Amino acid sequence: xxxxxxxxxxxxxxxxxxxWEAWAGPFPAHMxxxxxxxxxxxxxxxxxxxxxxxRFAVPVMLAAVVEFAIVWAWHLPQLHGFAQLSLGGRxxxxxxxxxxxxxxxxxxxxxxxxxxxxxGLFLTSMHMTLLGAxxxxxxxxxxxxxxxxxxxxxxxxxxxxxMLAIGTPVYLVGALVLAARVIREETA
Length: 188
Prior knowledge:
- The structure is a single chain.
- The chain has 188 residues and is mostly helical.
- Helix content is 85%, strand content 0%.
């Protein structure tokens, strides 16, 4: 548990201290932080502090639906532009992502029925996959105009690939671990 807490804090520092925008561009930096929060920091925090996880736990399917709404809303051009162009918007966006991630992971890890927890993580994996694929396959930069910058389709595609490469497998592996736990308990 201590290692998970140290890892969560180290990951937070790694997400916000380096100048990711300068290295990767604005959209890949946004996506790296987004996925780092929901698929890295949130589950590590829930594993490190299980008491907090139990207190924070909400029904996992409710958490998954709320997380879906938060993630998709912040990827609409207007809200994404608000977050990119204002410090207050960026902080609000990042806090919303972290809260959503904490809700999903605490709900999944403390679900009365572990298969329901697995289902919530699997549902989240599916919508992360869909959003990542839409970002990769979009015919143009969805955010350049509203953010007042030059179009950067390759940056958007890299951001979508990061979503696919981080979010999809982390949530899927979490779902499979919970499902395997049920199978082990039933065969024991």
